[in-house]
Amino acid sequence: MRLLLTLPLLAGLAVPAPYEDPLAATGKLATAACPEPAIVQGGIPRTREYLTAMMKCLDRSWSRHFAGAGLTFRKPVVRYYDEPATRVCGGDWPDGAAAFYCTERATLVFPLTGRWIEDRTDLYPLKVAAHEYGHHVQSLTGIRKHYESGARASRARQAELGRRYELQADCLSGVFLGSVWGSLARGRGDWEAVLDATRASGDDDGERRSHGKGANRAYWLKRGFTAQRPGACDTWSAPAARVA
After folding, report:
1. Within 13 Å and on the Cβ side, how many CA atoms surround 50?
2. DSSP-derived 3-state class of residue 92
3. Torsion, Cα of 134, 115, 44, 126 (10° steps)
4. Which terminus in the chain has less CB density within 10 A, N or C?
């Protein structure tokens, strides 16, 4: 990944200098086992059991990857709520949000109820969990810091940079899904279903511009899944059409 920083010259001019993503050359996420508990029935105890198991898988996979790359890893804090609360992480619960990542507190927040997870048989809950974990990876590697710096420097590019940030998390979720796919007891139809659910969660209705069009969300998820390499998730140098 290459994000542009600015270095001053003696003449008072400036040139762009490349920012190298520490994950770019770290290779594939190692193949790992991550069997899913069933969540189609059982209510809150079952959804909590499911997410707890998936968090352990994500912790193991990313901690090993960071260790192999010589990077410092810290587990995120994980908080579960029976249902959305009024306040969370020192602020209001985000409107329309299911799961999310509190950046300043390195905390993953998961409601245990709602359409995103209750009575589901597809992989969408795991994709969502892996996406939010992707934001934690972005924070650990300094990617979030550079995204926020760029957004502060250019209000005109804030929406675009936000989409690049979110689409990279989609891609990182695909990297994880690809690395554990062999242990999920899933088939082609399950993969197509999660791609369809991801497309349906895009910005195509025109009411928001924060995550990218459904086709682009599915593209980056599939790209990560196929490559199984975090370095394949370079949304920052991607053409505008791929982050629209």
Report:
1. 31
2. strand
3. -30
4. C
